């Protein structure tokens, strides 16, 4: 299924600490899951290999500033890095690693009772990570991008995109935004294959057969 560009317009971004940039915000028709995912195009136009961040929605971290996770600081870091390098931030409506907001809050309650972030999902009857990146591949194809560098610590994003026909040349790790409130959460992610703590390294992508 092919997605098409719907609207593409200028969006001035202004932050209270003074950082600002101008993005283009792009919406789409024909995305397979019917949700309203958007792309921000940032920075200089690059002929090959734009820097791309697939950011999974996290209302509590992205909007409210919750320190239980690292999503808020990662979102801001990603905007700045993509604005510098040239590329896209795809804001994917995959709240709670795909299980939704209310279920994520249920999972938080289980974590307060001792489970880790993945065990909590499983205890609620979900997979550890329910995200599928087909819509991200559709968005990149609609934008005319087949070759990207991916800003992430999650190798699964690179593997899934590559399997969907996008040439992912390398994974570029984000910084590590660790605090007393999210340290347990980040440690669980590393146990499940995240590259948090490998900052500065560029990691080649391997696709499983
Ligand atoms: N189910 C669940 N989802 C969570 C929890 N904490 C954060 N999330 C969601 O996890 C998603 C972000 O995933 P992360 O595992 O933090 O990071 P990632 O996207 O896999 O990897 P990066 O690209 O390196 O950021 C967002 O959709 C958040 O809403 C949690 O405890 N339980
Ligand atoms: Zn979060």
UniProtKB/TrEMBL annotation:
It catalyses: GTP + 4 H2O = 2,5-diamino-6-hydroxy-4-(5-phosphoribosylamino)-pyrimidine + formate + 2 phosphate + 3 H(+). InterPro entries: GTP_cyclohydro_II, RibA, RibA-like_sf. It is an enzyme of class 3 (hydrolase). Keywords: GTP-binding, Hydrolase, Metal-binding, Nucleotide-binding, Riboflavin biosynthesis, Zinc. The keyword Cytoplasm does not apply. Its EC number is 3.5.4.25. Residues 21-173 form the GTP cyclohydrolase II domain. SUPFAM superfamilies: RibA-like (SSF142695). The keyword Signal does not apply. Pathway: Cofactor biosynthesis; riboflavin biosynthesis; 5-amino-6-(D-ribitylamino)uracil from GTP: step 1/4. Its cofactor is Zn(2+). This is GTP cyclohydrolase II.
